[in-house]
């Protein structure tokens, strides 16, 4: 009987514990923080031993295998000691994938992965038995245990990829790579790029790799590190024999001389980056033999993702937009790019080593006022102070929204697109987005 130690009692940890127990492991869950009540109840109900508020080293170091939450960096002393002892330390996707024969679609990237994963699932579920997991919804491990879908769409972060050994998606998607989470990669962009590319490291020539053919970082890496899989790039400017490209207003996708054409003019999602997300998702659907009529209808009725450029309300002819999921500069770049009205921009939070330069053109063109919502706004003030007439600091969402309400005029937009992580003032980006929506509804 294998001893499985799970570090972190959140969604992925509890899912792994349940799957491990069902497969005959001796399971112990340890969380240095406090495990949420709903997860405690699940562990108690399933008679799984756990502790929180502490890591009992003697009960962890005797593991045969350790599954760690993606939030725990590998540099932590306890993890280093496990690695020195030769104990495999893996992520949930690595652990869980061993217990399914399903076709796996793995989606990663600095931005767009949640939208692309959700959209891909939306296209596939019309005709296939398919689960959506990874960084999103119910954990992958729990879904294998409860549903055993024939296919999975997995949204995968670089942190989850850091802890794989054999994990291999049949179809890998890389939406883009821009500097993000550099605080976890010793501020070395190369290390972060390498981490993202682990999604293809176990692929063979029977597998597929779908990626942004306009992304210089990706193209440069592929030149130096050839991959085994069949390459299917997508692009807004180039054309490909195999892959997806834009021809006038149409997306054309070719795989082995089999071409489908999708009009973009009725896409439910707006913005250039969403044409790319649609290309990636449609390429997966085409590979998995979804009918083109189904793909077309699904692209036209897809509602998008909560906290991602989500229209909340229009008040006094001012549109309030929740883009709380924009936790890095590049995501905010896409948001500002799609703004066509004068914008009151709410920004700030935990800076992960951001370089704000690429936003300057949009701020100069479109932003009339900036509201800094963070505990430390100095960098924002230094970067943007000279660009707008109004720049205000606050630490409360309700206050930020009230200020925005005062500053905005008919025809303007108020955009929450923080470009930063949320942990200084909020539990997570969802909490930040919900507080924004509540504050707007209370105006």
UniProtKB/TrEMBL annotation:
Catalytic reactions on record: UDP-N-acetyl-alpha-D-muramoyl-L-alanine + D-glutamate + ATP = UDP-N-acetyl-alpha-D-muramoyl-L-alanyl-D-glutamate + ADP + phosphate + H(+)
Subcellular location: Cytoplasm
Domain Mur ligase C-terminal: 307-420
Cell division found in the keyword field: yes
GO molecular function: ATP binding; UDP-N-acetylmuramoylalanine-D-glutamate ligase activity
Top-rank EC class of the record's enzyme: ligase
GO biological process: cell division; cell wall organization; peptidoglycan biosynthetic process; regulation of cell shape
Keywords in alphabetical order: ATP-binding, Cell cycle, Cell division, Cell shape, Cell wall biogenesis/degradation, Cytoplasm, Ligase, Nucleotide-binding, Peptidoglycan synthesis
UniProt KW Cell wall biogenesis/degradation keyword: yes
Residue ranges occupied by any Mur ligase central domain in the UniProt entry: 107-285
One Gene Ontology term, aspect cellular component: cytoplasm
EC assignment: 6.3.2.9
Protein name, UniProt field: UDP-N-acetylmuramoylalanine--D-glutamate ligase
Originating organism: Psychroserpens burtonensis
Gene name of the record: murD
């Amino acid at each position: 009987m294998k001893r499985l130690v799970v570090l972190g009692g959140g969604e992925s940890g509890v899912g792994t514990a349940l799957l491990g127990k069902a497969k005959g492991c001796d399971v112990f869950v340890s969380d240095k923080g406090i495990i949420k009540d709903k997860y405690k109840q699940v562990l108690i109900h399933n008679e799984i031993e756990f502790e929180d508020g502490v890591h009992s080293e003697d009960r962890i170091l005797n593991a045969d295998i350790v599954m760690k939450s993606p939030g725990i960096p590998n540099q932590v002393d306890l993890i280093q000691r496990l690695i020195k002892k030769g104990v495999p330390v893996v992520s949930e996707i690595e652990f869980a994938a061993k217990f399914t024969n399903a076709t796996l679609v793995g989606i990663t990237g600095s931005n767009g992965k949640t939208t692309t994963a959700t959209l891909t699932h939306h296209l596939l579920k019309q005709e296939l038995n398919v689960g959506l997991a990874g960084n999103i919804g119910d954990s992958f491990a729990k879904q294998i245990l409860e549903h055993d879908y024939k296919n999975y769409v997995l949204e995968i972060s670089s942190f989850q990829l850091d802890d794989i050994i054999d994990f291999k998606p049949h179809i890998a998607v890389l939406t883009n790579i821009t500097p993000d989470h550099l605080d976890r990669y010793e501020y070395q962009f190369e290390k972060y790029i390498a981490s993202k590319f682990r999604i293809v490291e176990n692929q063979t020539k029977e597998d597929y790799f779908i990626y942004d053919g306009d992304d210089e970082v990706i193209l440069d890496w592929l030149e130096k590190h050839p991959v085994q899989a069949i390459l299917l790039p997508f692009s807004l400017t180039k054309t490909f024999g195999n892959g997806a490209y834009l021809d006038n207003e149409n997306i054309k996708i070719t795989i082995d001389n089999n071409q489908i054409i999708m009009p973009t003019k009725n896409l439910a999602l707006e913005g250039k980056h969403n044409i790319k997300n649609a290309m990636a998702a449609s390429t997966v659907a085409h590979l998995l033999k979804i009918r083109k009529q189904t793909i077309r209808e699904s692209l036209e009725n897809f509602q998008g993702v909560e906290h991602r450029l989500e229209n909340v309300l229009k008040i006094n002819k001012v549109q309030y937009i929740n883009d709380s999921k924009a936790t890095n500069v590049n995501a905010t770049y896409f948001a500002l790019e799609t703004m066509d009205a004068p914008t009151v921009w709410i920004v700030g939070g935990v800076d992960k080593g951001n370089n704000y330069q690429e936003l300057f053109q949009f701020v100069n063109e479109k932003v009339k006022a900036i509201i800094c919502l963070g505990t430390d706004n100095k960098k924002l003030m230094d970067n943007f102070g000279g660009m707008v007439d109004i720049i205000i600091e606050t630490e409360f969402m309700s206050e930020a929204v009230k200020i925005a309400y005062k500053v905005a005029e008919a025809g303007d937009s108020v955009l929450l697109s923080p470009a930063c992580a949320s942990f200084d003032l909020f539990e997570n980006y969802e909490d930040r987005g919900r507080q924004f929506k509540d504050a707007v509804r209370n105006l």
